[in-house]
Amino acid sequence: MENLLVLIPVALGLGLVGLIAFLWAMKSGQFDDLDGAAHRILFDDDDQPQRKV
Amino acid sequence: MTSSSCRHCGGPLPDGCDDGFCCRGCEGAFALVEGLGLEQYYSRRSVDPAARPLRPDDDAARIHDFSAHVVMDANGGASLNLMVEGLHCGACVWLIESLLNRQPGVTWARVNMTTRRLVLRWRAGETEPGAILAPVLAVGYRAVPFDPERLGDQTQRQEKELLRAMAIAGFAAGNVMLLSVSVWAGHFSYMGPATRDLMHWISALIVLPAVAWCVRPFARSAAAAIRSGRTNMDVPITVGVILASLMSLWETVNSGHYAYFDSAITLLFFLLIGRYLDSRARGRARSAVEHLLALDAGAVTVVEDDGTQRLLPPHKVAAGARVLVAAGERIGVDGVIVDGSSDVDTSLLTGESVPAQVAAGARVFAGTINLSAPLRLEVAAVGERTLLAEIVRMMEAAEQGRARYVALADRISRWYAPVVHVAALATFAGWTLTGGAPWQVALLYAVAVLIITCPCALALAVPVVQVIASGRLLRQGILVKSATALERFAETDRVVFDKTGTLTLGRPELVEDGGWTADDLALAASLALASRHPLARALAAAAPMARLADGVTEHPGLGLEVADTGLRLGSRKFLGIDDDTAAGPELWLAGSARPPVRFAFTDGLRADAAQVVADLKAMGIAVELLSGDRPATVAAVAGQLGIAEWRAACSPAGKCARLAELAAAGARVLMIGDGLNDAPALASAHVSMSPSSAVDVSQTAADVVFQGARLAPVLETLAVARKSRILVKENFMLALGYNIFTVPLAVAGLVTPLIAAIAMSTSSLVVIGNALRLSRRSG
C-alpha cells in the first residue's frame, strides 16, 4: 500500500501539469484562431515567399 | 483554374472573354499579385463558394476613417484592428499577411481566420494606414476598422470563464474518478477503512476547491432567479452540488462508507460542457452578425464652417451641421438638401424599388443611398427625432408588446425544480420522522435524491440539440441569434414576406427583351460606367468588359451624356421621347444618328423564391406578402409566386398592425424582411428572419440572419427547427424516464455513489447520442 503514497501524488502532479499547461495556453491565446493555425502550417514561408525565377 | 472561370476571382467568365478575366478590376488585381511574386496564391487557395468572391469593386475606395481607430503606443508604434471580408481559405490569410509585410514600416500583420480580424502594427510617422492597406483592398478584400473594446468582449470573457471552469472540473473529475473507482472496488474486496478514508480525504482536497470555483456560473444564475422570485434549473443544481460536497465532507470526517465527491464534480463537468457549447455556438452566430454590421457601418462627412471636412459617427453630428454625401454613399442623417440634385434609393426605408429624384429643399432620410451626384445637406434632426429613431421606438414598443416567450426548458424547470426540492425534503422528513433513521443518514439519502434528479441529462437535453442545430445552420450561412428562435420557428404556421430585397434581390437586372443588340449594350455600358445609379450599374454589370467612354458627364436625376458625340443615356424625359407605352424601370440610349433604344430592368426574384413559396404551402404554412412598394409591382410579384394574400403600400405601422391582427387571430407568424420599414414588424412577429443584406436595425431585430442570394435557408431553418423540437422532446422523455426509474431507488436509500455515477453518465450519453442524430444532413 505504500506505493499509493508515491503513485497518487505522481498522478495528481501530472494531471496538474496538464491543467496548468492548458490554462496557460488559453491565457496566451493559443486557442484564439483554431482555423487559421490549421492552415498556417501549410505555408512555411509566411514572411518571405520564394520568388519563382 | 479551369478556362471557364476568372483567373483572379474564380467567378464564371462572361461570354466573349478570352483573356481569362471577368472584369478590369480582376485583371489589375492579378497583375498586382503577380508583380509582387505572390502568384503561388492562386495554386494554393480553394475558393469557398459561400464567401464573397474576391472581386475588387469600385467601392474599394469607400472612405474609411482609419485615423479614428488607430491606437498609438509610447514607442512610436501604431496599431489598428480591422475586420476583413472576403477570406476564402488559409491562402487568403497568407496573401494578406504577405502583402502587408512587404509594405515599408509594417512591424506586425496577423489575420485571425476564425474571427476574420486583422491586427496591424506599424511605425507611426513612416507610413499611413491607408497606404498600407491599399494593395489588400485592390486585390478585392474589404477591411473595416473596429473598436475591439466594444465588440463581443463581454461574451468572450464569459466564454473564457466557462472554459476555464470546464478545464478545472475536468481535471478534478478525472482524478477523483480514479480514486472513486478504487473505493468502489474496495467495497467488494479488502480495502481497509484507513485507505478508504485516505482516498476520501484526497478526493475532498481536490473536489472542494474545484466545486467552489466551478459552481459560480450556476450559483450566480440561481441567485438571480431566487431574487426575482422565480426558480430555474440552476437552483437544484447549485443546492445539490453544494449539499453533496458538504455531506461528503461530513462523511469523510466521520470515516463513513460513501462519499459523493465524484458525483458532485462530474455533474458540474457535464453541465459546464453543455453551457460552454451553448455559449460558443450562440457567440459565433452573434460575432458573425457583428462582423456583418461593422462592415456596413458608415461615418458622416461633416463640413465645418472653415471648409475643413471631418468624419464623425452619425450620432455625434449636431442638428444644423452641414454634411457632405458623396455619390454612392449611404446617407447617415435626416436632413434637407442645401445644394445639389441627385437620385436617392429609398428601398430600404420604404420598399420602393425605383429611386426617387431629389433636389435642393427636399428632405432625405437616414438609411437611404445617394446615387448619382454629391449632395450637401443641412442636418434636420438627430437622435430621438429622426425617422430612424422613430422606427426604432416603434420596434421597441412592438418588442415589449410581444408576450415574453418562455423557452420549453424553462417551462419544464418551472414545475420540475419545485418537484425536485419537495422530493428531497420528503425523503429527509420521511426517513427522520417515520423511518427512524438518524438525521445524517436521512440527509445522505436526500442528497442522493437531489443528485439523481439533478438534471444532468435534463440540462443537457436542450443545449446539445441547440448547439448541433445552430452549428449545422451556421455552416450554411444561417445565423441563429436568439436562444429560443428555433423553438419559435418550429411553431410557425404562417410566413409573411417583405418584397424588395427579400423575395427579390433588391437590385435591378437588365431584361433581355430583344429590343437592343450587343452593340447597343456595349455602347450604353461605356457611358453607364461613369454613374453609380443602380440602373446604370446594372447595365454596366451586364457588359463587364466595357471600357469607360471619354468625356462622359452626368446630369443628376436625368442621365449621362457624351458632349462631343451627342450620345445620351438616361430617362425618357432626358432624351425627349414621348413614347409611354411601357412601364417599369428603364434607360434609353440615343445619339444624333442613332434611333432610341430602350433597356428595361426588373428587380429579379431570388432564384428559388417560387420553389420556396410552393414548398412552404406544401408544408401547410400560409404565405402572405406585405410590401411598401406600389400595388402594380407587388401584384406582379405575388402573381408570379402564387401568393394569394398580399398588401401593397404598407407603412411600417401598417405592417405592425397587420401582424398584430394575425397574432390576435392565433397565427404564429414568421416575418421575413430586410428594410428599415420592416424592423418594427420583425420585432413584433412571433419569430423573424432577415437576409444579411438587410439594414443593421433589421438584422438586430431579427432572430435569424441568413446569408447568400437564395431563399432556401427559410426552408432549411424550418426543417431543422422542427427536427430539433422532436429531438428535444425525446430527450426530455429519456431524461424523465431515467428519473422515474432511479428516483424511487434514491428515496429508498438504495443508491450508492457507484449507481449514481453510472446512471448519470449513461443518461447523459444517451441524450447526447440522440441529439447527434441531428447532425446528419439527411436525418
Element layout with pairings:
The complex is a heterodimer of chains A (53) and B (779).
Chain A (H helix, E strand, L loop, with lengths): L1 H26 L6 H7 L13
Chain B lengths: L23 H12 L4 H5 L26 E2 L4 E9 L4 H12 L4 E7 L4 E7 L5 H11 L2 E4 L7 H36 L4 H22 L1 H12 L6 H20 L7 H36 L3 E4 L5 E4 L9 E4 L8 E6 L2 E4 L1 H4 L5 E3 L4 E2 L4 E2 L4 E7 L5 H15 L6 H27 L4 H15 L2 H20 L2 E3 L4 H6 L3 E4 L1 H5 E7 L7 H11 L5 H9 L9 E4 L3 E4 L4 E4 L1 H4 L10 E5 L6 E9 L3 H10 L3 E5 L4 H11 L3 E3 L4 H13 L4 E4 L6 H6 L2 E5 L4 H6 L2 E3 L6 H35 L5 H20 L7
Parallel strand pairs in B: 16-23, 16-25, 23-24, 25-26, 26-27
Antiparallel strand pairs in B: 1-2, 2-4, 2-5, 3-4, 6-7, 6-8, 8-14, 9-12, 9-14, 10-11, 10-13, 15-27, 17-22, 18-19, 19-20, 20-21, 21-22
Notes on the protein architecture:
The complex is a heterodimer of chains A (53) and B (779). Helices cover 62% and strands 0% of the residues of chain A. Chain A is mainly α. Chain B has 779 residues and is an alpha+beta fold. Among the domains of chain B are: 92 residues, Alpha-Beta Plaits (2-Layer Sandwich), CATH 3.30.70.100; 86 residues, Calcium-transporting ATPase, cytoplasmic transduction domain A, CATH 2.70.150; 146 residues, HAD superfamily/HAD-like (Rossmann fold, 3-Layer(aba) Sandwich). Helices cover 49% and strands 16% of the residues of chain B. A seven-stranded mixed beta sheet of chain B has the order 15-27-26-25-16-23-24, with helices on both faces. In chain B, α6 packs antiparallel against α8, α9 packs parallel to α14 and α13 runs antiparallel to α25. Chain B is elongated. Classes of the chains: A mainly alpha (53), B alpha+beta (779). At the A-B interface, α1 and α2 of A face α3, α5 and α6 of B.
